[in-house]
Amino acid sequence: MKKLINSVDNVVKEEMEGIAAAHSDLVRVDVANMIVIRADAPIKGKVGVISGGGSGHEPMHGGFVGLGMLDAACAGHVFTSPVPDQMQIATKAVNGGAGVLHIVKNYTGDIMNFEIAAELAQADGINVESVIINDDVAVQDSLYTAGRRGVGATVLAEKIVGALAESKADLHTVAEMCRKVNSMGRSMGMALTSCTVPAAGKPTFDLGEDEMEIGIGIHGEPGRKRMKLASADEITEMLTMPVVEDLGLKQGDHVIAMVNGMGGTPLIELYIIYRKLDEILKGMGVGIARKLIGNYITSLEMAGCSITLVKADDEMIKLWDAPVHTAGLRWGV
Amino acid sequence: MKKLINSVDNVVKEEMEGIAAAHSDLVRVDVANMIVIRADAPIKGKVGVISGGGSGHEPMHGGFVGLGMLDAACAGHVFTSPVPDQMQIATKAVNGGAGVLHIVKNYTGDIMNFEIAAELAQADGINVESVIINDDVAVQDSLYTAGRRGVGATVLAEKIVGALAESKADLHTVAEMCRKVNSMGRSMGMALTSCTVPAAGKPTFDLGEDEMEIGIGIHGEPGRKRMKLASADEITEMLTMPVVEDLGLKQGDHVIAMVNGMGGTPLIELYIIYRKLDEILKGMGVGIARKLIGNYITSLEMAGCSITLVKADDEMIKLWDAPVHTAGLRWGV
Amino acid sequence: MEMNSATVVKCLDLIADAIHEQRQYLTDLDAAIGDGDHGINMDRGFSTVRTRLEGSSEKNIGAVLKLVGSTLVSTVGGASGPLYGTAFLRAGTALEGKETLTLDDICEAMDAAVAGIMQRGKAATNEKTMLDALVPAQQAMHKAQADGASIALAVQRAADAADAGVKATIPMLATKGRASYLGERSIGHPDPGATSSALMLRIVANALAA
Amino acid sequence: MEMNSATVVKCLDLIADAIHEQRQYLTDLDAAIGDGDHGINMDRGFSTVRTRLEGSSEKNIGAVLKLVGSTLVSTVGGASGPLYGTAFLRAGTALEGKETLTLDDICEAMDAAVAGIMQRGKAATNEKTMLDALVPAQQAMHKAQADGASIALAVQRAADAADAGVKATIPMLATKGRASYLGERSIGHPDPGATSSALMLRIVANALAA
Ligand SMILES: Nc1ncnc2c1ncn2[C@@H]1O[C@H](COP(=O)(O)OP(=O)(O)O)[C@@H](O)[C@H]1O
Ligand SMILES: Nc1ncnc2c1ncn2[C@@H]1O[C@H](COP(=O)(O)OP(=O)(O)O)[C@@H](O)[C@H]1O
Ligand SMILES: [Mg+2]
Ligand SMILES: [Mg+2]
Ligand SMILES: [Mg+2]
Ligand SMILES: [Mg+2]
């Protein structure tokens, strides 16, 4: 295992100290509790928006704390949900009197830890609404699974919802927009390699020199199907079509599209994927209104990519365009 | 070799088509000649700023074309300097009547190809100034080498010089600022893994499970010293001290600092490196005025990082803060 | 062996040791059908439990278990944190104020723990989770209670039932937790959470038999 | 074999074949002390040269070589593109208008080519570059000229001198080009550019001897 770390146990702690050193203008960092908080939080009258999850997905979530996006992000150990105490502290820290929205990715651990935290927050007298993100089409949403995982759409939701909260909309409106983005968002990912949880010391799964894993999640866990390596165009097709079909996209629709790298894939390859995505959607008369291409929700050093499409109306695009100033996303300011 | 590509021969061509599809608001792409040109070029009365080099360093240079940075970028094949014809076309495309600056990284191939291009441009009646970037302290700058390589400082120079050109400064002033940034910039890089040139099909060099390469360049070529893997703090020290000493940094100086990923290293590890860089410079009383943390000048999927420091005065920081709108960097707009 | 708080704390220490020893094994199991962190998560939790119980003179067994539960909730994270945390919190509530335990008490605590896991995780048996070890153990304990067995024997039987439960998870299709994302590919692997539950019961059984 | 443009084009075709066959070998050499692209760069250039010369009925050997030179400059890239491109452009200029070649012509073209490379690359011998194959070849050719040797024999001796030159680059410390970044670690490896130069001379020697 070769990583740029000091000791396996201090990976997240030292990352937090690095974020604090780098972005003291944007955030303050509670290193002991592994929480990144917007420097000017709480903002009176503004709905506080928090999220959180296992570390190893950077820049998500800590890299999305700041103007126009998240007010706080709770970091668990690598690929391990954060604990209720963290979300309780974060909820208090961002409560501007207008309530707090919890954006929760659909993982059993995240759901349960956020659930306990929401119970604690109500006990503290803070009004909390929770929205679960479950956009991963690779998992059948049926009785027989823990439901669809929360992946790429989380990034887009945090931007859109963050902008709405910035405009001082009330908690229910902000939560409803988050549900809407979730309902309009679908993703699918794939991996060329696994990744190594520092504490585990070896890759979570092994892939042969000519193999790839289709439908992987973002915790380095194996995916739906292991297959022979295919071309970039074939892979783009395999990821895009299930998303398009599940969303029921048709001629005249517009989307916000993200081609996301899993952490170890260079930008040159992501543009080759975007090239085919653009071709496929153009062929169907679906317009790409906005796009993100790069590493936004990763799995440590995993080589691979994911495609996320959010069917967007004018309001969502307006909120997307609103100013944002975080370590991971910045425009309009 | 596992990559998200279609055919080895079309890697750069398809990347160009992807950039054209994604960023038609910012750039127009001459795919046949592999040149990314600012959408609104040429801008009358503005010095045209172009650069170029082998592909595989994304987002550099094509990702830095747009407002406040480059007017055009010529892409060679992976790790191979572009040819004079490309720079000749690019020079004509960005010439707003105020002359054109060529920013050239100090590699024999880049120097000679840009030299031929500059000769052709003069023959076309276009006033060209060239500035060579050679900030890599890993290479002794003596009679016995091809001189120091052009690495991280190239990114910082393109931003600062691009802002000055945007303000309609004349060619000589813009060229002098570029020389100043180069003279104030130093970098050093390291690698945990090699990378694979698509056409070659296998890694350029092999590193053992417990080995790292200190002083690597950005073309996947081996570095100065091969050593046993060290901790993130030790590595940061090994990269920072030679840069600090070569620059002669002392108490009260300010720098623009970049902790750059080589393409396959996750952000969590770059923040751990930044943490130690911040500690070292604070200990010396050197202030970090601005910073970049992420993948800005890469080597395909290489795992590793580089540190660049540019000793900055107020004017350079003001130009750094000026608006920029490119695929790879965006703020203030 | 007197079932007082000292014994309970002794068992918890032994559990912490075992979890630490089996850390890599539990993580490997989780790597096959999960995200490769179960052993790491559990070790983090139980090493904190050990530190917090060091030199504790707490007589009230309910309080001890509640401390274990809140510690696990605050340190383990992932899915297993809230589940095991809730289990120990509910068991502690059931034994509030008790300074020694009868088999009836232990059965009551076990029932509360299993109910807590089901409520928090919204899972049932046969979904390839820790319940597939804990529910058989619970039933075995009640049977031992009905047979008038000793505490040591009851826990022994529970541990045996739990081990059988772990083996039974191997052919199961996971329909809860991270493993469910794999569909059929989760078949053929034992569940990590069931394995850690069975491990804990085995440690307690061995301690009581000694 | 008559040294007319047909023969020159024939030799260039054979060079293109050989470069294509040795593509991986040249790239491996460049991977050791460079950035692993020399064979790829040369193959791209000479396959374009072959296409452009296909069916060419150009009699003027100078024009043929200048076409080769401009093609290499526009397609090879890297350091070898401008160097080999300049070499062929200068040789072509030296042979402007000639439809057949004498040994004197060939020596003159060789001198122009080597001078072009030295000017463009600002390098000398003993810097572990292509010059360490081409300069010995140049000298051998002049010696053969002085001995009144045939063209075939002169090129044969040039190819032998180039091969010896390549071996001589192995112990050399690279002080130019990418290899110079390695300092002492460039010692012990043959220079890729010298190897491709020697390869080209060998192909022509074999063709003329056939
Ligand atoms: N809904 C659930 N109900 C009961 N147990 C569950 C549930 N979801 C997961 N588990 C248990 O949690 C174990 C995984 O724990 P761990 O790996 O620590 O958490 P995570 O899956 O978040 O990484 C599984 O092996 C399973 O036994
Ligand atoms: N300054 C120079 N003068 C002469 N030959 C040089 C010079 N620099 C490099 N070369 C030759 O170029 C070869 C490398 O070519 P190539 O790999 O195609 O270019 P690059 O180094 O840009 O990748 C070296 O092996 C060497 O023979
Ligand atoms: Mg986990
Ligand atoms: Mg090259
Ligand atoms: Mg797990
Ligand atoms: Mg090379």
Write the layout of secondary structure elements.
The complex is a heterotetramer, with 2 copies of chain A (333 residues) and 2 copies of chain C (210 residues).
Chain A: H1 11-22, E1 27-30, E2 35-38, E3 48-55, E4 72-78, H2 84-94, E5 100-105, H3 108-123, E6 128-133, H4 153-166, H5 171-183, E7 185-191, E8 211-214, E9 225-228, H6 232-247, E10 254-261, H7 267-283, E11 287-294, E12 304-311, H8 314-321, E13 324-325, E14 330-331
Parallel strand pairs in A: 3-4, 3-5, 5-6, 10-11
Antiparallel strand pairs in A: 1-2, 2-4, 7-8, 7-12, 8-9, 10-12, 13-14
Helix pairs in contact in A: 2-3, 4-5, 4-8, 6-7
Chain C: H1 5-21, H2 23-33, H3 38-53, H4 61-75, H5 80-94, H6 103-121, H7 131-146, H8 151-169, H9 192-209
Helix pairs in contact in C: 1-2, 1-3, 1-9, 2-3, 2-9, 3-4, 4-5, 5-6, 6-7, 7-8, 7-9, 8-9
Q: Could you list some keywords that capture this structure?
A:
heterotetramer, A: 333 residues, alpha/beta, six-stranded mixed beta sheet, 14 strands, 32% helix, globular, C: 210 residues, mainly alpha, 9 helices, 70% helix, binds adenosine-5'-diphosphate, binds magnesium ion
